[in-house]
Design goal:
Radius of gyration of chain A: 24 Å
Shape of chain A: globular
Structural class of chain A: alpha+beta
Oligomer: heterodimer
Structural class of chain B: alpha+beta
Strand content of chain A: 35-45%
Shape of chain B: globular
Chain lengths: ~425, ~450
């Protein structure tokens, strides 16, 4: 890193280097048994430099000489945007727990054992199910250094467990699954096995459903998969700046149910989305996006914030290119109503666990429409079976304006979203 | 390099070993509205080793070439740890070959400044359209050289250039935001992203017009799909189900997907093949060294064949089809599509819509996904069909189907095959893989359309 900084500073006004070094070991299961063990090592370096006031960018992985990287960044700087911010000079950050040395010591055999135990539990519940999944451990080191004096470095561990089951029955295919992720080892097979078995039990038979409008409970998986993508887009400072967000002129207005609190929180200990600083070396912090139904705050990186006359919220994120605003970990605050009580309240309705295609509509507008990949029909307060060949359509802003209840059943989905169930009065259903 | 790779492979004990080394250079330009947000370049090297021992796999990837020998040893050790049974893997002839990149108009020889001025022009066209709020443009090109060596004695060097352009025009009125996009991709021909001025203008005008368009009420309709959306349909509705890795270890799926089963009418022929030349999913060898082929997935309505890697082929007693692909060195190859399409029939477009009292004409794509049995695909543009004619524009629709019924509900296949090169496919975390898909216009009876 120092070498790149030194070469680049000879031809540029300011320079920033970002490096990620990682190693990940996924153990993969296929057809109910161990299939493959992988080890993935990766080192990537990204260089931002300012030349004649303009931004240049280059990125390299592997055997790329530092001088080549600098030359590439200098070349792109001729076309880069006029730089309107300084690289941060921060060197210390509030501690956020994201490293657990235990992870590196988990043996391959205990990972194999964990996966096989989950599979065995699922298979003994439901004959004929075919499970596929992975248990993965990894360590990544993030480092940022700039000519402004900024320096940040953080080592993060990750452990994740994902398992899917596929059940073919009478020419009918059912998918069930769970995914959990943490900076600490997850060695207990029962939550994942239990969740998959719960889904299997509820989907044991199919129930008829007619087109119309029905009340709906989005389970935590349903919320994460159906409702969040439009909000993530709408609260992105860049979407707001461009005038492409329905929230652009709604700041400080109450447009959601008063019970709704949505927070981006990178400070929760040992969560995989947690971090002391963002990918630009700005302190990562807890930001309330929706506060009691009010549009509280949008999220920004340095460049977008400068354009918008705002300041970075510590949400600069890189996914293969230049930083742009991105959320760390979304938390919807849990409510007081149990899923059982929501169910009791429902005369006829629908529970949505997984919606396929939900993110393929016009997300910008808050619209979503999808096929209920996993969902259950409710009649007189009881789940009567799985619905199939059914589409639902809605608009996130209309759905969340007034909800019937927010659940007390919050859970993490894949480690990056924590949400309860949400019970909404009406959704359009189209069925065959 | 060849001698070094073979000496590493020969020094290890496994039923099969392969090494892949990647070298790539890419450039990227991104706009948001008037702002050029990113002008960037990337260079990379990396590699991986995959080993098969007694039916178990090990895989190790790395960035730095000095990790090659250690990674190879690790892959074999991991495979040995997994392997409990016996390996089944189709044998292959040793292939020694070198494939140069096809490039009609090489994007790497075009200066960044020229790319930028072309995009500036498209951007201006969109931004000057009355009612347009903002735009989004992403352009990228990549040159990649992959060196492959295996314990079969194969040594193959393949280079390819891939480029893609995505433009979106975004219109807004009050809290209503509508967008229309255009995606273009090509295997090394920059001229495919040139001369798009009229198309770019049209998407901007359509985005504005969408603000006044009504939404369809959800339900079942007779739908007509244009070649682009029908291509996405065939990819999602049948292509993924044809990938043998979803089938080979699942006895019930093997029963469902028995060769000869009827999925559609006599008129339905579905093809996948990297050997179909000049398309974005075309290549000479896959990432296991198998030569590309052209496979009839459905012939005259009957299940005819499927897409294989060497492992799935061996396990099912069928021949490899050259469909094992890896997006880059940090992933092992898995069974993927290449160029997937419905072969043309004889129905003209006018005959196709002529008999429809009330239906939906859905064009262009936004996305698509599948759970093998049920799938969704979303249109970028849609119209009502009334009394046999194209009527008012409606908000884009999401359509859904069930593989066991929807292919049978195709009752007309057009004569106007066209391939869409603008898409990318995602599977098992490997996305977006360059593929193409296409079809003539098709008509589907009783298709589920989402809507309020």
């Amino acid at each position: 890193m120092e070498e790149i900084l030194d070469i680049a500073r000879r031809s540029a006004e300011s320079v920033e280097v970002f490096r990620v070094t990682s190693v990940r070991t996924p153990v993969q299961f296929e057809a109910n048994r161990l299939k493959q063990i992988q080890t993935k090592e990766s080192v990537s370096v990204a260089l931002r430099l300012v030349k004649n006031g303009k931004m240049g960018f280059a990125q390299a992985s592997g055997n790329v000489p530092p001088a080549d990287l600098v030359r590439m960044a200098l070349e792109t700087s001729q076309f880069g945007y006029q730089v309107n911010f300084d690289f941060p000079s921060l060197q210390s950050f509030e501690k956020v727990e994201v490293f657990d040395p235990q992870v590196e010591h988990i043996s391959i055999d205990s990972m194999i054992n964990l996966g096989q135990t989950i599979i065995d539990a699922v298979c003994s519940n439901t004959a004929g199910i075919i499970c596929e999944g992975s248990i993965s451990r990894g360590t990544a080191t993030f480092e940022i250094a700039s000519t402004g004096g900024g320096h940040a470095s953080c080592k993060r561990t990750n452990f994740s467990v994902s398992m899917d089951g596929m059940l073919v029955r009478n020419g009918d295919i059912l998918y069930v699954g769970d995914i959990r992720s943490s900076c600490r080892p997850i060695m207990d097979p029962s939550p994942v096995a239990g969740e998959i078995i719960r889904q299997l039990d509820l989907a044991r038979s199919n129930a008829p459903i007619k087109s119309g409008t029905l009340p709906v409970i989005f389970t935590p998986f349903g919320v994460a998969g159906s409702l969040l993508a439009p909000l993530i887009s709408a609260f992105n400072g860049k979407t707001v700046l461009d005038g492409a967000s329905p929230m652009k002129d709604k700041k400080d207005m109450v447009i959601f149910d008063r019970r709704l609190l949505l927070t981006d929180d990178p400070t929760i200990p040992y969560q995989p989305g947690s971090t002391p600083f963002d990918d630009e070396g700005m302190p990562a912090r807890r930001n309330a996006l929706i506060e009691h139904g009010k549009v509280a705050q949008f999220y920004y990186d340095l460049h977008t914030a400068a354009l918008a006359g705002s300041s970075s919220t510590g949400n600069g994120s890189r996914s293969g290119g230049m930083p742009s605003p991105s959320i760390h970990a979304l938390v919807i605050e849990g409510g007081k109503v149990s899923q059982a009580d929501m169910l009791k309240d429902m005369k006829e309705g629908l529970i949505i666990e997984q919606l396929m295609g939900a993110e393929q509509g016009n997300i910008l507008n808050g619209d979503f429409s999808g096929n209920v990949l996993l969902g259950y029909k409710v009649d007189n307060g009881e789940i009567t079976g799985r619905v199939k060949d059914t589409m639902v359509s809605g608009n996130v802003y209309q759905l969340l304006k007034e909800v019937l209840a927010i659940g007390s059943d919050s859970r993490w989905i894949a480690g990056y979203v924590n949400t309860p169930s949400i019970y909404c009065p009406a959704i359009a259903v189209a069925a065959k | 390099m060849r001698d070094r790779l073979f000496s590493i492979i020969q020094g290890l004990r496994a039923d099969y070993i392969e090494v892949r080394l990647d070298e790539s250079q890419s450039s990227r330009l991104a706009y948001r509205g008037e702002r050029l947000e990113e002008a960037g370049r990337t260079a990379g090297t990396g590699g991986c080793v995959r080993a098969l021992v007694k039916g178990g796999w090990g895989f190790a990837s790395f960035n730095s070439m000095d990790r090659l020998a250690d990674s190879a040893a690790m892959a074999v050790e991991q495979a040995t740890h997994v392997g409990q049974g016996h390996s089944e893997f189709s044998p292959a002839q040793a292939v020694i070959d070198k494939v140069e990149a096809e490039c009609k108009k090489n994007p790497l020889e075009i200066p960044l400044s020229a790319k930028k001025s072309l995009l500036d022009e498209y951007n201006r066209i969109m931004l000057e359209t009355p009612g347009i709020q903002t735009t989004s443009i992403g352009y990228g090109d990549i040159r990649k050289k992959v060196t492959f060596a295996s314990s079969d004695g194969s040594y193959i060097e393949q280079s390819r250039i891939d480029l893609n352009l995505r433009l979106s025009a975004i219109a807004s009125r009050n809290a209503d935001v509508q967008q229309v996009g255009l995606s273009i991709g090509s295997k090394g021909d920059f001229s495919t992203v040139e001369g798009l001025q009229e198309k770019v203008k049209a998407i901007a005008q359509r985005a504005v017009a969408l603000l006044s368009a009504p939404e369809v009420k959800g339900g079942t309709f007779t739908v007509v799909l244009d070649p682009v959306l029908a291509g996405v349909f065939v990819h999602e509705a049948f292509g993924h189900l044809s990938e043998a890795d979803h089938i080979y270890e699942n006895p019930q799926m093997r029963d469902i997907m028995v060769l000869g089963r009827r999925f559609g009418g006599q008129h339905l022929n579905i093809v996948d093949g990297a050997a179909v030349p000049g398309l974005r999913g075309s290549y000479r060898y896959d990432d296991e060294g198998t030569p590309a082929s052209k496979t009839y997935l459905i012939k005259e309505g009957l299940l005819n064949s499927r897409l294989h890697s060497r492992e799935t082929a061996a396990r099912m007693g069928e021949n490899p089809t050259g469909n094992a692909r890896a997006i880059n060195y940090s992933y092992p190859p898995i069974v993927r599509m290449t160029n997937t399409y419905i072969e043309p029939g004889t129905t003209t477009f006018n005959d196709m819509i002529g008999g429809i009292n009330k239906g939906v004409y859905a064009k262009d794509w936004y996305g698509g996904t599948t759970s093998l049995e049920m799938f969704t695909f979303s249109a970028g543009e849609a119209y009502m069909i009334r009394d046999g004619k194209i009527a008012e524009m409606i908000r884009p629709v999401v359509l859904s189907g069930n593989v066991f019924t929807t292919l049978n509900n195709i009752d007309a296949i057009g004569n106007d095959l066209d391939m869409n090169q603008g898409g990318g496919c995602g599977k098992a975390g490997q996305s977006p893989l360059p593929v193409s898909n296409g079809s003539p216009h098709i008509r589907i009876r009783n298709c589920l359309v989402g809507g309020k």
